[in-house]
Amino acid sequence: MTKTRVVVLVSGRGSNMAALIDAAAAEPDFPAGIVAVISNRPGAGALTIAERAGIATAIVDHKAYGSRAEFDAALDKAIRSFEPDLVCLAGFMRILTDGFIEGWAGRLINIHPALLPSFKGLDTHARALAAGVKLHGCTVHIVTAEMDSGPIIAQAAVPVLDGDDEDALAARVLAAEHLLYVRALKLWAEGRVRVTDGKALVDAGGDADATALVWP
User: Is 93 assigned a ligand-binding role in the annotation?
Assistant: First the structure.
């Protein structure tokens, strides 16, 4: 079986990246393989996790470049050196230029810690608590030029409990993220995701839980 080659972009601890690596390693028939992990931060903990798993790593330090365009050009070159079919953002804390996104159009996905289109951007858990919502969660989506607005592949809903603070809610959402990103990558790698009229249509194969989870 020819597996989808995946490069993961990270900036921090890499827990979502680790979930993808673990799934690919644990299931012999998992349809994707993580071929490289690239970070914009030299000290990112994700790099150590990837190296221990025997996965190639690279650093493209955004502080070494004078503009977003220059950084994105260097990042694009690094990614292409691994010849991936798909790029997964996993806690990658950089806003990508339109030109970069266009170059990877349809092959760039992200996980966002909220139920899009609600709470785009940062500080999603604090904003969800402030809004008093009863359901929060996470979303895997295709990256487009408009931030956190691309076609939605899959979502997981997480209850907001009485007494939750930001840390408690974040931990519950993160556990759901680890499951959801693996499911979404598997669906993508199996060729079961297609975009029509700006929406991601997913062939769930009769699995009603494939693209919509309720956690726990």
Answer: yes
